[in-house]
Write a structure and sequence with these properties.
With 212 residues, the chain is of the alpha/beta class. 36% of the residues lie in helices and 23% in strands. It has helices at 2-19, 24-34, 55-58, 72-82, 120-130, 148-159, 170-179, and strands at 43-47, 64-69, 88-92, 105-110, 131-138, 141-142, 182-190, 197-204. Strands 1, 2, 3, 4, 5, 6, 7 and 8 form an eight-stranded mixed β-sheet that branches. Helix 1 packs parallel to helix 4.
């Protein structure tokens, strides 16, 4: 199933920036909430970077921003959009199979991806592994309000090959992160009622030791 998802995003890459343009105000609001948590000494790993919707505006605030995506075409589009940004680096990787060393990043960003992964707990396990003690996870994710319009929108998108594996509400998404060993530091629901976005900042909860 992951291979089918990868093929879909490879084909989607050249349309993705235009497709996401309607969400520009939402992403600006999201960036405004993330920036206060960043510092010029931080090393950040971004998973599922798409075509750079967060990479480009946020990378200047840190020392090193490693933007990655499962789709090499998405990465190519993001690189083309970025131009020369000394803090920003790109690579292709699967968020559930990271080759990074343990405890090597101050923060990890994974935006709007966990709900479209068949096994998001595998990505969160890897994120726990690569985060330094006290490191931050930013996991803004589209959630569902449960209304008819939200269900219709998702159904229409899935006809194109887009797959949603987890239709979380904001509360269910926060509960899921907590169940995977993360302590919620900040959260807010942004956007409109049709498909809201749950902005979340969290840290590893050292009270539990999860494994796969």
């Amino acid at each position: 199933m992951r291979q089918k998802d990868q093929i879909f995003w490879q084909h989607m890459a050249k349309f993705y920036t235009a497709f996401m343009s309607h969400s520009t105000p939402l992403y600006k609001s999201l960036c405004a909430r993330i920036v206060p948590w960043l510092s010029s000494s931080m090393t950040v790993l971004e998973l599922a970077c798409g075509t750079g919707q967060l990479s480009l505006p946020l990378a200047p605030y840190v020392q090193h921003w490693q933007a990655t995506d499962l789709s090499s075409e998405m990465v190519a589009c993001a690189k083309a959009r970025a131009g020369e940004m000394p803090q920003l680096y790109f690579s292709t990787c699967d968020a559930t199979r990271l080759s990074c060393a343990d405890a090597c990043f101050d923060a990890v960003v994974i935006a709007n991806a966990l709900h479209i992964m068949p096994a998001p707990e595998r990505a969160l396990f890897q994120i726990r592994r690569v985060l330094k003690p006290g490191g931050l996870l930013f996991a803004p994710t589209f959630v569902h309000s449960g209304g008819l319009l939200a269900r219709l929108r998702t159904d229409i998108m899935q006809l194109s090959g887009f797959r949603v594996y987890h239709s979380w509400s904001s509360e269910a998404f926060l509960d899921f992160l907590s169940s995977q060993g993360f302590h919620i530091l900040e959260h807010a629901t942004l956007g409109g009622p049709v498909l809201p976005l749950c902005h979340v900042v969290c840290q590893i909860d050292h009270e539990g030791d999860l494994s796969l």
